[in-house]
Amino acid sequence: MKISMSASRRADIETACSTELALNQFVMVPELARDIRTPDYCILGEGEMQAVNAWLGPADTVTPLHYDPHHNLLAQVIGEKYVRLYAPRHTPALYPHEHHLTTNSSQVDLDKPDHDCFPAFKHAPFLDCVLLPGEMLYIPPKWWHFVLAKTSSFSVSYWWK
Questions:
Q1: CATH number of the domain bearing residue 14
Q2: 118: DSSP letter
Q3: Helix (H), strand (E) at residue 30
């Protein structure tokens, strides 16, 4: 499947769903996987590839504030995404969930942060950017990130140790 074919179905996607489609097992769609190449710098050094993921969704799709344990290179293929990053040293101000399976996710809703419940959050410094088609963002391990699709969007992330 060519990426352009996926893009042509953008209107269908927007009306059919309001959440992002995550192809965490990218190899499950070999036709699409053949169109995506892993950049050489993802396999340099001693680390090994962990996953190549595809993310497809309509405008206003949100990935809540969380961190991943691996190096992450987020490549924007189609559309635009807003990304906000917080350094690991600010973890206490991001109020991670306390349950074992969700400790990498924040309790704070960035769309409507409750500063009464999470007072330190408003003082947590962050970096942000908008990714355009053809741009990539490196997200180091354990860096917190929030992602908002500004338009219909297709992205690929490369995770490695």
A1: 2.60.120.650
A2: -
A3: helix 30-33
Tens of pLDDT, residue by residue over 46-77, are 666 677 888 889 999 999 999 999 899 999 99
Name the β-bridge partners of 127: 85
Rounded to an integer, the average pLDDT of 106-130 is 97
pTM (2 d.p.): 0.80
Give the total number of structural domains in the chain: 1
Q: Which range marks the domain in which residue 124 is found?
A: 3-160
Strand positions, DSSP E, the chain? 21-23, 49-57, 62-66, 71-78, 81-86, 127-131, 136-139, 144-149, 153-160
Provide the pLDDT for residue 95.
98
d(C-alpha 57, C-alpha 17), whole Å: 8
